[in-house]
Write a structure and sequence with these properties.
This protein has 205 residues and is an alpha/beta fold. Helix content is 49%, strand content 18%.
Length: 205
C-alpha cells in the first residue's frame, strides 16, 4: 500500500493557505504549509516533497521562483501553480517552466484534489518506469558478470568480426586482453597450413 504523499503548500495569504492545507489534510497527504516563497524554498531544501502547490504572486519570492527551485531539486516533482490573477501569459510561462498544471482561484476542493491526483499518477508512472529501468540495468550487469567470470570461452560475433569475448575465451585464443581480439575474424586464428589444406581440398574435389 502506498504511504502518504508529502505536499508543500505556499501562499502569502494566511486565509488561503489555511483553507488549502485544511482541504488537503487527511490520510492521503502529509501537508506542510509555507507562508510565502522564501519559506517554501527553505522547506524544499530541508525535506523531500512529492507535490508543491504554490501561489503565483507572492512578495520577494514568487511562485515561479519556487517552481524553478523545486524542479532543480527534483525534476519529477509535481508543481501546481494557483493564482487569483490569471492570464494567458502567466499560464504559458508557468507551464513552460515545468509546472504540471495551473489553477485559478477560487477553485473547489474537488478540483484541487483531482489535479493533485492526476499529477501524482504521472509521478507514480515515472517512478515505476525508473524502477523497471534500474532492475533491467541490474539484470544486465549480473548477466555480464556471469559471462565475464565464466570458465568457458564465450564470444559474440557481429558481421563476421568478434564484437565481444570474455577473458576465458581470450585466454584460449592466446590473447592477454579481450580487447585485443575485438574486430578480428575467426579466420585470424586458423593456422595457415589448415587454410592451405582446405583450399587444396576445394581445388581437387
Amino acid at each position: 500500500m502506498e504511504g502518504q504523499r508529502k505536499v508543500l503548500v505556499a501562499d502569502d495569504d494566511e486565509f488561503a493557505l489555511r483553507s488549502i492545507a485544511t482541504a488537503l489534510a487527511g490520510e492521503e497527504y502529509e501537508v506542510v504549509a509555507a507562508a510565502g516563497g522564501s519559506e517554501a524554498i527553505d522547506l524544499l531544501m530541508q525535506g523531500s516533497f512529492d507535490v508543491v502547490l504554490t501561489d503565483l504572486r507572492m512578495p520577494k519570492v514568487d511562485g515561479l521562483a519556487v517552481l524553478r527551485r523545486a524542479r532543480e531539486i527534483n525534476p519529477q516533482m509535481v508543481v501546481l501553480i494557483i493564482t487569483g490573477y490569471a492570464s494567458l501569459e502567466s499560464a504559458v510561462e508557468a507551464l513552460s517552466e515545468g509546472a504540471y498544471d495551473y489553477l485559478v482561484k477560487p477553485c473547489s476542493d474537488g478540483e484541487l484534489k483531482l489535479k493533485i491526483e492526476k499529477g501524482l499518477e504521472r509521478l507514480r508512472l515515472s517512478e515505476q518506469r525508473q524502477r523497471a529501468e534500474e532492475a533491467l540495468r541490474e539484470s544486465e550487469e549480473r548477466y555480464r558478470q556471469l559471462i565475464e567470470l565464466s570458465p568457458d570461452g564465450i564470444a559474440i560475433e557481429s558481421g563476421g568480426q568478434i564484437a565481444f569475448i570474455n577473458p576465458a575465451g581470450a585466454e584460449i585464443l592466446g590473447a592477454a586482453n579481450p580487447q585485443q581480439l575485438i574486430g578480428r575474424t575467426g579466420m585470424d586464428f586458423v593456422h595457415p597450413d589448415h587454410i592451405r589444406a582446405h583450399q587444396y581440398s576445394l581445388w581437387h574435389d
